[in-house]
Amino acid sequence: MPVEIHDLTVAYHRKPVLWGIDLVVPKGRLVGIVGPNGAGKSTLIKAMMGLLPLSSGWVKLFGEHSRRNLKRVGYVPQRESVDWDFPVNVMDVVLMGRYGHLGMMRRPTRKDRDIARESLDKVKMLPYANRQISNLSGGQQQRVFLARALAQESDLYFMDEPFSGVDAATEAAIVTLLHELRDRGKTLLVVHHDLPTARNYFDMLLLLNMRVVAFGPTSEVFTQELLQRTYGGRLTILSEVAEAVRTRT
Amino acid sequence: MSGFIPPFDWHAVVVSPWTENMAQYGWIVAMGFLVTLACGLVGNYLIFRRMALVGDAISHSVLPGLAIAFLVAYHAGSSGLWGTPPDAADGAHHDYRSPLLMFLGALVAGLGTTVLIELIHKKSRVKQDAAIGITFSSLFAIGVILITVFADEVDLDADCVLYGEITFVSMEPRVRLGELSLGPPSVLRMGVVTMLTVLFILLFYKELLVSSFDPGLSRSMGINPTFMHYALMSWLSVVVVSAFESVGAILVVAMLILPGATASLLTDRLPRIFLLTVLHAALSALAGLHLAIWLNCAAAAAMVVMGAAWFVLAWVFSPGQGLLRRWWTLRTQPLAPPALETAQPRE
Amino acid sequence: MNASSPACRQNGSCLHPLQWLRASQSAALLAGVLLLLLGAAMPAEAAKIGELTETDVFEQAIRFFSMKDPTARYALSGAVLLGISCGLLGSFIVVRRMALLGDALSHAVLPGVAMGWLWHQTKDPVAIFVGATIFGLLGTFVVSLIKQTTKLKEDAALGMVLAGFYAVGICLVTMIQRLPQGNKAGVDKFLFGQASAMGPDDIKLMAVVTLIAVVVLFLFYKEFLAISFDQAFAHVSGFPTRLLHYSMMLLLAFSVVIALQAVGVVLVSAMLITPAAAAYLLTDRLHRMLWLATLFGMVSGALGAFISFLQTSLPTGPFMVLAASLVFGCAFLFAPRHGVVVRWVRRRSRARRVQRENTLKAIYHVLEDRDFFGEGVSLNELAERRRETVEDASQLATRLVRHGLATLHEDGDLILLTPEGMQRASAIVRNHRLWELYLTNAASIAADHVHEDAEKIEHVLGEETVRKLERRLAFATRDPHGRAIPSTADIQKISKGGSSPEEVTGYGRRP
Fold this sequence. Notes:
The complex is a heterotrimer of chains A (249), B (347) and C (511). With 347 residues, chain B is mainly alpha-helical. Chain B has helices at residues 10-19, 22-48, 52-78, 99-123, 128-149, 158-163, 185-203, 205-213, 215-220, 225-247, 251-266, 270-295, 299-317, 323-332, and strands at 175-177, 180-183. In chain B, β1 and β2 form a beta hairpin. A three-stranded antiparallel β-sheet of chain C has the order 1-3-2. The chains are: A alpha/beta (249), B mainly alpha (347), C mainly alpha (511).
């Protein structure tokens, strides 16, 4: 199993953000993680990668405790999490995807560059390879991150809101790419904040609000009752929930 | 190593300053208290606004302003425009400092620093932290060069810039009003500045508060946050420059931040924070003086050391959020499950 | 915005050497400017400082830089070494936005310096180095501890550590000075720095430490790049991010500590921040930034050491910092891409281009109004169309001539567009009308509201966007106001005209 989580609890300053998470994700699925703001979606991803101290429970990736199998994990962080004025160009960023395979002290080889170039080509960013990253639009920046994750050639991908601040064309391209990866047997966990599209994009949905509200195939989980339980009494979102369910045919 | 740390003599360190040299040490403690209080009060707002390091920058960059003010006063003085011309035969010490020019120089330097930092980080991709570092170090370097090159004209030496000469206040000739001796001029000056600071905060309590926490709301209430920002920075420059000769350019930073930081570890309520700031200032000045007498070291630095010691005590023992309390709750109390808003289906 | 320079963007590989060239050129330029400024400032400065004459300065310069004098040799090599290590580590803290942590660290070393001195009661470089490094690291550790365990923010934590540790240091230093052997202790030289106080032992230590920093950064460049850009990603790549971070802090403490003697506690952070920030403005690649920052650090270090060599009573630190600030100032103003002046010039040239294009458009409109009949446009007609004086119109016409877009005839009263001018004029009119049509058709905005928007858009539409627009609007020939839209094909024909002026311009006679 790519991901197994048992009784996971994470707290910031003794305030629990995730509580008693149990989760088993089967191989080759495209999983959407949805929930209101502050539901701990990003925290869950970070905890799975071992970036945060766990208050209790454990996470296994591919049957082993996380640290060991991190190299089989690809990661697309939130776009805002890095400084886009950083003095690197697009190629430098994508090459970082190869660092895990290289190990310490070794420099990227020609083969790594070829892989990076291919990944860039897949997201249609090859013409921008030498562009400094601050001279990119939001959608292009997101594509660069995606190319970096592709260059990692991983079996399991964690993506944190890859659709935020992205134009329609890029969004469609990303969805196609995610489906392609899934069809090649990769497992993908994607944090997503737009309910109406979540239903179309993902095979499985994890409804999260500090606890797991529901996890299962999209058709079974995407119900008014479960969504309302996830989003609680938040009025604005409730109407969105109703809308999302109504458009479902 | 022997003799480096003098033996602790209770009588000499704690008692005799107050029984034998009251007049001398009283003024030093008063000066230390006033400086720490004025700095601490203004510093509280720096902490709220997350601008502690802009305070650091301004405290460094008033140096060139001060040096230029001295230069101008000296040359104006020597040509008879400002006070009495120097008279070598007289042999007396001539004071060429003009408080007005000093405040003016500090204001220009302080506002200049603020503007320069803004300029660098708005007009280029250099981030604010680096912009602060570049600005204050350049201005400070200019200041140091001025006071070394024009050492004859500028009555500020390097030691004074580095750690102040707070003990000098007891040697100043007293200001007299008729028969009555009021006290050393710099203490009186600092007293006025501190009083004005308190007044400033009392009068503009609401404005300062709102513009610190919510610039948008403050604009809608008709308080211009930019104006409040520059007003605060100007006042900060005035406070820093009046404290400059006593504590120097760097220790001021501690006096700006330590009182407010200590207070905010002990309470969450703003009025109490201000009261604790006063208490912290008094305790640091007093304890600092005794430390300085015992170890025979720079008094202003000793006051900061004691201020830092109070901070560490609060950090460890604060009843609400101290390290001990944190450690204890971590040991004894399990995490409480998150309270979930349960779904409330509405019609 | 994407269409501003399609040719260069498309062919990405052409940028690489060009950029490098530009970066190195600007570095050379900066160095030149700096030397010039210094050359100009030096005689005046020196005259003031030590009543030295101009020739003396040159003699001194030769003596200093030829390193014949042992003091000069130590001072210069020390300055160069500290420039290297501070430039390298400074680059990392600038891009990681940790500049002020560098400042806090550099003040926090002072108690360590004092304790290092107390160890043997002499200025033993190694003891001072060890003590200072320990306290520097302790300072950064306390900063992160305060951040983690209290609600105080980073700025307050940095300020307290900076000034608190410094105060402890000052207490110790003043206590040392009151010791019988403390007077000649030289500890006070650590506050503002004195390059000439450095001896062979200091230089050896500096060389070793700089070498360590260079080797470690070279070997682990990739790892340091990764944790600086995206710590979470570096973790996923399997790098020991925490270990890497602390080793970077250790190197940072090293470079601060070896720079202390020459720059002093108070200003050493500037040698970390300023050269690196200048380099940051000049290049978009981290490895080039490291090179440039090293260069700038060395240059400013050497200059500062030289000035204090002229007059030993002057502290070295402030002069080094001032030299570095000068470099930064030049970069801030004149950096090829990010410089303030350069951007101003670029903005101005864009405004000029817009003005030329508007003139061309007005001429086109005049011609169009009379069905392209007649020989060119008179200044009067242009002035009338643009509602300006004839003098202004004449100035505009001269600008067109200067750019080869028009020629003036009949004592400068008649403007004839060159083929290129006509091509540009038609293109601008086309852009304007296409955009108006697009707004009314696709965005269904009323026809009388589209002009203002088109006035701005017409100057920035790229060739590719225009073609898309044309396709999208099915190669329409009329704009919403019923006027003809020149097609791209027509415009291209203009340049293929014959050789005689009438044939070339193609619009001079009645069709």
